[in-house]
Amino acid sequence: MVDKKNISTVIADDHPMILKGLNDELTANNYNIVGQAANGMQALELILTHNPIIALLDIDMPLLTGFEVIKMAKQKEVDTKFIILSYHKENEYISQAKALQINGYLLKEDSFSEIEECIECVLKNEVYFSRSFVPASLVSVSEDLKKIKHLTSSEKTILKLVAQQMSSSEIAETLFISIRTVEKHRSNIITKLEIENNTANTLTNWVYLHKNAIKEL
């Protein structure tokens, strides 16, 4: 195990008590806190400035979400390992975390010992999800993401526009193609994603549940 004093860490949460509690626990356990942020913009600035080994981020923060911070930091090619610490258990959040290839995802209800276990895992280049997640949901999300990757570039474009709540006629007008072509693409997408109950709103409903992951296409 790496000496904790050498594990530079940035933490970010817009709830002062949670931020203080996390800082106190990490400091008491000899982690090197190089910065604290109360919003996403501050978090991004700290990460780009310090290039910490670990960044522990909330998702719902002002100015930039935790996911946006991670996406922008990765575009700058930082070496930081990213761990989400959130209340969100929903599949759409798991989908976006997996799409962004986030190193760890913890829940705020988790014990500090699990936070340490997560840190140990991500330092070994392993991906860690909270034990509170139902394993089946993690597998289901992973399978859905694999299916999305099998879509053609045209189908991914259609999927993004569906995620923007555009109708087939609006998509056709935007892409300068026929409505019939759009409907054919939608049919192919439904087949490739193996979506059951093929009704008029089938694809729209599926996209709603996976909209965060689709943003990363």
TrEMBL record:
> What CDD domains does this protein's entry cite?
LuxR_C_like, REC_NarL-like
Q: Which Pfam families match?
A: GerE, Response_reg
Q: Which residues form the Response regulatory domain?
A: 8-123
- 4-aspartylphosphate: which positions carry it? D58
Gene3D superfamilies, from UniProt? 3.40.50.2300
| Keywords for this protein | DNA-binding, Phosphoprotein, Transcription, Transcription regulation
What GO biological process terms are annotated to this protein in UniProt?
A: phosphorelay signal transduction system; regulation of DNA-templated transcription
Q: Which SUPFAM superfamilies match?
A: C-terminal effector domain of the bipartite response regulators, CheY-like
Task: Write one Gene Ontology MF term.
Answer: DNA binding
| InterPro entries linked | CheY-like_superfamily (IPR011006), NreC/VraR/RcsB-like_REC (IPR058245), Sig_transdc_resp-reg_C-effctor (IPR016032), Sig_transdc_resp-reg_receiver (IPR001789), Tscrpt_reg_LuxR_C (IPR000792), WalR-like (IPR039420)
Instruction: Specify the superkingdom.
Output: Bacteria
Q: Where is the HTH luxR-type domain?
A: 144-209
> What is the name of the protein in this document?
Response regulator transcription factor
